[in-house]
Amino acid sequence: MDTNSLKYTQDHEWIRVEGEFAYVGITDFAQGELGDIVYVEIETLNESVKMGDVFGTIEAVKTVSDLFMPVDGEIVEVNTTLEDQPENVNNDPYGEGWMVKIKLENPSQVSELLDLASYEKITS
Fold first, then answer.
1. Which residues contact 2 (CB under 8 A, 6 or more apart)?
2. The domain defined by 33-106 carries CATH number 2.40.50.100
């Protein structure tokens, strides 16, 4: 996965835009900070979620964290493989560890997010 093509939030989510849709997950930095992921809970399927709103939670051995939507969008798909394999978030956060697929409601918001260089500055 070319992480240069992704956009990032200060809350450590990433987004990959593919036409009118986008995939959302948490960054490698975030999964490293959380530790072993044991459960991902997303109950917002088919809901419209605004930028900055919580769309689910992620549970690690040591903590539970909210997942924040990077842009306005309708959640059209949830990565159901995470129900049985939450460790995919640890092993492949930018690939098999994606969390939701959304239909973008305001594509211009993507340009407001951080590029890789800007994101790396807040994690170092």
1. none
2. yes
